[in-house]
Design goal:
single chain; alpha/beta; 2,3-Dihydroxybiphenyl 1,2-Dioxygenase, domain 1; four-stranded mixed beta sheet; 2 helices; 16% helix; Glyas_Fos-R_dOase_dom; GlyoxalaseI/FosfomycinResist; VOC_core
Length: 140
């Protein structure tokens, strides 16, 4: 039976966060995301991340409260969010993240939607892991 649809890309990911202003500042200053809509009655903020969206919901807001307690060291809501970026200059990215007080992993080759390419990982203020992934490496 044929599929009635085909997945094109990630549309959005939703993170439950403890402090909306802190998380908004993080995604704006570290990743360059732009707030496109803030739905205060719901405790929900929509941020543009390239062609996709990152939505943040406050754990004490109407939407976030449905998920129970806030995630912590031993309880995460999401494993990680991977953002495809270009260019991938590991030294420049690492320096940028360190200026924001972050300690990224070393860049390593990982498989993604376009094939094997370099990526690195770091965590946002709520412990959500973010992977920044560059373009696929040319075949050897």
């Amino acid at each position: 039976m044929a599929m009635p649809f085909s997945v094109q890309r990630i549309d959005h990911v939703v993170f439950r966060v403890r402090e909306l202003p802190r998380s908004i500042a993080f995604y704006r200053s570290v990743l360059g995301c732009e707030v496109v809509r803030w739905r205060e009655p719901l405790g929900l903020v929509h941020l543009r991340a390239g062609a996709s969206m990152i939505d943040l919901v406050s754990v004490d807001g109407p939407l976030g409260a449905r998920g129970g307690d806030a995630a912590g060291e031993g309880a995460r809501n999401v494993d990680h969010l991977c953002l495809r970026i270009e260019p991938f200059d590991a030294a420049a990215i690492t320096a940028h993240l360190r200026r924001h007080g972050l300690v990224p992993s070393a860049a390593e080759l990982n498989f993604g939607a376009e094939g094997d390419g370099l990526s690195l990982y770091f965590a946002d203020p709520d412990g959500n892991v973010i992977e920044l992934k560059g373009p696929a490496c040319p075949p050897a």
